Amino acid sequence: xxIFRRKxxxxxxxxxxxxxxxxLALLSETEAAFLRSRVREAFAEQGLxxxxxxxxxxxxxxxxxxxxxxxxxxxxxxxxxxAWPLLVRDHVDKILRSVDGPDVLTTMPxxxxxxxxxxxxxxxxxxxxxxxxxxxxxxxxxxxxxxxxDLPETVQVLNERGLATLGEPAPLRVRALANLRRIPxxxxxxxxxxxxARFHVLEGExxxxxxxxxxxxxxxxVYEEAELGPEGALVAMPFRHQFAFHVITGxxxxxTLNAMARFAATGFAQAxxxxxxxxxxxxAGTLTRLTxxxxxxxxxxxxxxxxxxxxxxxxx
Length: 316
Known about the structure:
The protein is built from eleven helices and 15 strands. By secondary structure, it is an alpha+beta fold.
């Protein structure tokens, strides 16, 4: 009997310098093809034939299911590609049980539904995937606020038809914001850099951390001594479990904008549940987008108002 054991090899992934998939950039082209084939097989095991798109699949009834979150989940699993078939099957099983199971809007008591109601910030492209979200206020040209139910296995974003079973959007939003005030922030950290950049990062298990931007005037004083004044704040919502902000008070806004732009773009690209890769200027509840990825670079678009603010702050 041998006394030496062969060391187990760490699961290999394709090298980072290999060509990335155009739609699922966390994966190489080969890895993305492997993932899509496993997705097709998982749906077939459930009796569904799907048409494969670059970043989503469509079943025979026209239902579309995105692949970005699944790709991020697989990318971050330390077991490597050997674990992907199981992850894919679990993912497909969960979403099909969600859409094919009993409709919670008709089976769950209304008060229990209202207790699970939250505002959710989503990208315009995601919200318009299936349509029916015109009730949601457009925060910026790339972000929409909708209402969603936090269910045991999934988050169900409500379209107009689903929302109508609960009531009118305005009072429902009031209830959703009240629920949002009670979500736990599991971790708070302050990011500081040598050039003067400084911003707060709030993290937690709730899918609705980015929605705290809707309550920034209440949230900021909890973590920041500086007053949230007319200059407003910089905010970022990279993915569903993270929200970042910086109260604008002086010259530090310039390095902080650059640091938050890198922070937002990285979190958006690497984490499941991506929301936005951009940094926004918050003023009295309104948002203006300031940054956006452009290839491997980050583009900064400053309007006249923000430029004048920068000139006032940097001249002092």
